[in-house]
TrEMBL record, chains A, B:
PANTHER family: OS12G0226400 PROTEIN, PROSTAGLANDIN REDUCTASE. GO terms for molecular function: 2-alkenal reductase [NAD(P)H] activity. The keyword Oxidoreductase applies. This is Enoyl reductase (ER) domain-containing protein. Keywords: Oxidoreductase. Residues 22-341 form the Enoyl reductase (ER) domain.
Length: 346, 346
């Protein structure tokens, strides 16, 4: 007979319509879970090792009248997102107990994954830290790779600017830009992060946006010839400051807008006439557009990591109790590098 | 000996940094001009028949510290823009007296064109009203054609929205969309213009934006399935209202932003996160990007005009004295159709 275990989990307590959520909008509760897969189902029971904290989760804490691009979380139910897991028991022929996988799971100790296809992926390079599959070898990495190569379409010698450049996606975009032969500058929100950009990740230059009184001037200083590609993770005032600094025919890749997610009303961006006068292009994307190229990406990135051409910095908190604060910390810039939660070490 | 003639001309009196210019910022003066081409030069002396009034001219009335994409006008000097002209005398082997041409000229009776290549073009279809070469067979037409086919890249069945739809460019975009098999809706600023869109130009639907309390709702009513292509001539609040109504993967072609040109500070556009959540693309362009395809365009459009597949509505004022008010009228929507000035009839 299957074991029944206690299962600590993080649930959403209430919807947060606007403003910065607090830890108190989530709650850690204890449930009971039977470590078995329902007879006849193709579900997979997993033990969660690491889960990812991502800015887009903020939107899921709000109730949308018109459905958003991802489902809203539901008060009383477990928070879900990507993680790294070990299979405990499986009803699906492609997965067996002991397999290491990554994919969509719950912020809890054990999760029954009802649709292992297409939501679970085998971990093909377990020689790297398993936590990398919440980041550089998972969604954040594919986001950087799909956004940069499929949307930004860089050429050698391009001038590239990346905001939130030490974050989960930004640090990878910057290093991919260097591999492509671009000149790359990043912005971040602390001197510690700026130092990381210049030393660890090899950005050609970087600045602390919180210390610049004039963002437009800071960009002009860093890009006297202008910007060919802006990889935008923040939106708002930085996007507005970038527009006058773009080169003719420049491209803006809209990946995220973290500066806007907790505002009651988004900031207005005013410099849009530069789209006309400089023949600019802006294009947004979702990582789901690029799931089909994940395996090519995983293999390529494993090569870069092995050769030391890409390094990755993670900010790991331990335990589900620490998860709500870690998620909220993304919006104040508390994290240094990719934020994730370790639930169990094996 | 070459005749010396009086030459009435419109000059800029002073720069207008922000706000709506007034007629008084321009002045009609009388000069003397010798109707001869300087010996040995390749210049061409033209008699101006029609000149075009275009919203982009507003930007040229402002002094820019950082050079804009077109040169600023200079106080005391003649206003320049595209027009239709007859050659009076020529130092250039490609042009001879009596030729009908269109291209860059002055708001005056006679202009010495110093660089006939590349600024003057022969009129190949004089069977149409010559004034068409200030619009549907000139820059406005090429703007519509280049912007719609090279930037918007429409497919049959696309849902297309055009703002300032009865204007010089909008009426052509709408009719090109119909020729392509798109569903096309236009907005304009009076009931008279809305009627023109639905009857004369064959838009499937149209609305008067000044009578809509809720632009976002008006667009939802016209496009219950959403918008594939927005051809933006106005920017500002309309662009903001369009964003939530775009379909996934939709495209915005930034052609102009007439609602913004007289504001001290442009309106902020807030709904930019839809770029991410709906994988939208926005791309701006200048008509100069498409000069190389003008002759293909001229031939194709002449065919549409001949077959009655495209009709064109012009708003013609007579005399240089009326030119400053006609230009200003663009910003209050006084004109119905393409605004131009007749200086001489032959």
């Amino acid at each position: 007979m299957a074991a029944v275990v206690t299962n600590r989990r993080v649930i959403l307590k209430r919807y947060v319509q606007t403003g910065l959520p607090s830890e108190d909008d989530m709650e850690v509760v204890t449930a009971k879970t039977t470590l078995a897969v329902p007879a006849g189902s193709e579900a997979v029971m997993v033990k969660n090792l690491y889960v990812s904290c991502d800015p887009y989760m903020r939107g899921r804490m709000t109730r949308h009248e018109v459905p958003s691009y991802v489902p809203d979380y539901i008060p009383g139910e477990v928070i879900t997102n990507c993680g790294v897991m070990k299979v405990v028991s499986s009803g699906h022929p492609d997965f067996k107990a002991g397999d290491l996988v990554w994919g969509v799971t719950g912020w809890e100790e054990y999760t029954l994954v009802n649709n292992p296809k297409p939501y679970l992926h085998k971990i093909n390079y377990p020689e790297f830290p398993l936590s990398y599959y919440t980041g550089v070898l998972g969604i954040a990495g594919l986001t950087a790779y799909g956004g940069f190569f499929e949307v930004s379409k860089p050429k050698k010698g391009d001038y590239v600017f990346v905001s939130a450049a030490s974050g989960a996606v930004g640090q990878i975009v910057g290093q991919l830009a260097k591999i492509t032969g671009c000149y790359v500058v990043g912005s971040a929100g602390s001197d510690e992060k700026v130092k990381l950009l210049k030393t660890k990740f090899g950005f050609h230059d970087a600045f602390n946006y919180k210390k610049e009184l004039d963002l437009e001037g800071a960009l002009k200083r860093c890009f006297p010839e202008g910007i060919d590609i802006y990889f935008d993770n923040v939106g708002g005032a930085m996007l507005d400051a970038v527009l006058p600094n773009m080169r003719i025919g420049g491209k803006i890749t809209a990946c995220g807008m973290i500066s806007q997610y907790n505002l009651e009303r988004p900031d207005g961006v005013r410099n849009l006439f530069y789209f006309v006068s400089k023949s600019l292009r802006m294009e947004g994307f979702l990582v789901s557009n690029y799931i089909a190229i994940y395996h090519r990406y995983e293999k390529e990135m494993a090569g870069y990591l092995r050769e030391g051409k890409v390094v990755y910095v993670e900010d790991i908190v331990e335990g589900l109790e620490a998860a709500p604060a870690a998620l909220m910390g993304l919006f104040t810039g508390r994290n240094v590098g990719k934020q994730l939660v370790a639930i169990a070490w094996e």
